[in-house]
Write a structure and sequence with these properties.
Layout (H helix, E strand, L loop, with lengths): L2 H27 L6 H33 L1 H21 L14 H24 L3 H25 L5 H23 L1
Length: about 180
């Protein structure tokens, strides 16, 4: 497999892991009485945030990599490990769901909350020198599609998959963090 294909595959897996947050929360929000137009805007907004947050993270990570070298690589791997553990653990907490409706300011808060982890992953990717456009395109497209899928499924089923999807996303991020750390040694 070529290096571009391998990087694309890795980025798609990471995008899937990050998008599982949006999917699982979208699953719960899909149980609100939302019109299809609202579902469309929610997905687009989450996708935009999943482009902006990792882009800022990648730019910051690139600067850190140039400045601090191996230490920055170690930090990037540790960030992915911690993020993966946090996502995995939070998936088993019993939350009642979002306190804000996904419209107006509530949509902004929702999109920001599900994309904050994208900043950390972007930071790690910037440290490791990933292709910026490919990474943010993967993150934005996958997050948008998974959000739409979660919202749509939430309209049709009860939240039986939500916790497990976020746990899967956390496990994938943890595995990538471990892979990045093992590559240093």
């Amino acid at each position: 497999m070529s290096t571009l294909a391998a990087e694309l595959f890795t980025l798609l897996l990471m995008a899937f892991a990050l998008g599982m947050d949006a999917f699982s929360i979208g699953l719960g929000m899909g149980m609100y009485k939302l019109r299809l137009r609202q579902l469309f805007y929610i997905g687009i907004t989450v996708g935009v945030f999943h482009v902006v947050m990792p882009l800022v993270g990648m730019l910051t990570g690139s600067f850190l990599s140039d400045t601090f070298g191996t230490f920055a690589s170690l930090l990037g791997g540790v960030l992915l490990l911690v993020l993966g553990i946090q996502m995995f653990v939070s998936s088993f907490r019993n939350d009642d769901g979002p306190a804000l409706a996904p419209v107006g300011f509530g949509l902004f808060v929702f999109a920001l909350s599900v994309s904050l982890d994208s900043f950390s992953v972007g930071l790690s990717l910037g440290i490791f020198g990933a292709r910026t456009f490919v990474a943010i395109a993967c993150f934005g497209i996958v997050a948008t599609v998974l959000t739409w899928l979660g919202l749509w499924l939430g309209r049709h089923v009860q939240g039986w998959l939500g916790n497990y999807s976020e746990a899967l996303g956390g496990a994938i991020l943890f595995a990538f963090g471990l892979k990045l750390l093992l590559a240093l040694f």
